[in-house]
């Protein structure tokens, strides 16, 4: 069992990606994430301060205020707008590695997301319910990671026992309800080069095995 706390080894990544090692969120990481989330909740509940991606638009729309009742919708729309990766799906091992790396990055506890989001990612790994992620995305991996978020929200597609199914059906198979992304959570999920990091970790693991064979 690997406890996510914001640190991972190459061996950890390979164990989860290739050997289906179990994953859970560590207690200390859970506390950090809860504290970080409380800060975002406080900002989202206030109309006194504009915070990028929390109560404003993104990119060129950064100066557009978002009303409190639309903050969750803003996050869901971010996932839909970045659902633009193309090409054949990433293979099973890379998908698992990318989910792990992203969950671990969020477990550092400075991204402002609640621990339940990482719990959901861990459940996808435990149940081997894997979002279908096209391999040709964006340099920052936002397009690839948007596919992960959409499945958590009951959209997109995922592989369940090797069979491609809708996001809703995949969540049913994993025993999960649709995840309601709160302020900043989708932005945090897609903001990281987790796919590239996962590819690098798996490549290093293979090189080490070859070097010691």
Automatic annotation (TrEMBL):
Signal peptide: none annotated. The keyword Lyase applies. InterPro entries: Aromatic_Lyase (IPR001106), Fumarase/histidase_N (IPR024083), L-Aspartase-like (IPR008948). This is Aromatic amino acid lyase. Keywords: Lyase. One of its GO terms (molecular function) is lyase activity. Gene3D superfamilies: Fumarase/aspartase (N-terminal domain) (1.10.275.10).
């Amino acid at each position: 069992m690997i406890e996510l706390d914001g640190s991972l080894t190459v061996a950890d990544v390979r164990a989860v990606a290739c050997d289906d090692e179990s994953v859970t969120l560590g207690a200390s990481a859970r506390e950090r994430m809860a504290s970080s989330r409380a800060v975002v909740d406080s900002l989202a509940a206030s109309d006194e301060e504009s915070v990028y991606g929390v109560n404003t638009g993104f990119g060129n729309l950064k100066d557009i205020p978002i009303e409190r009742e639309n903050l969750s919708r803003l996050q869901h729309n971010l996932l839909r707008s970045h659902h633009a990766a193309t090409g054949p799906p990433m293979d099973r091992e890379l998908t698992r590695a990318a989910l792990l790396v992203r969950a671990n990055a969020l477990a550092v506890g400075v991204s402002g997301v609640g621990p339940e989001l990482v719990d959901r990612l861990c459940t996808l790994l435990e149940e081997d319910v894997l979002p279908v992620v096209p391999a040709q995305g964006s340099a920052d991996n936002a397009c690839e990671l948007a596919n992960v978020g959409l499945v958590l929200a009951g959209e997109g597609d995922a592989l369940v026992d090797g069979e491609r199914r809708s996001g809703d059906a995949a969540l049913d198979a994993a025993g999960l309800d649709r995840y309601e992304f709160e302020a900043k959570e989708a932005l945090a999920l897609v903001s990281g080069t987790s796919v590239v990091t996962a590819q690098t970790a798996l490549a290093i693991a293979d090189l080490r095995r070859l070097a010691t064979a």
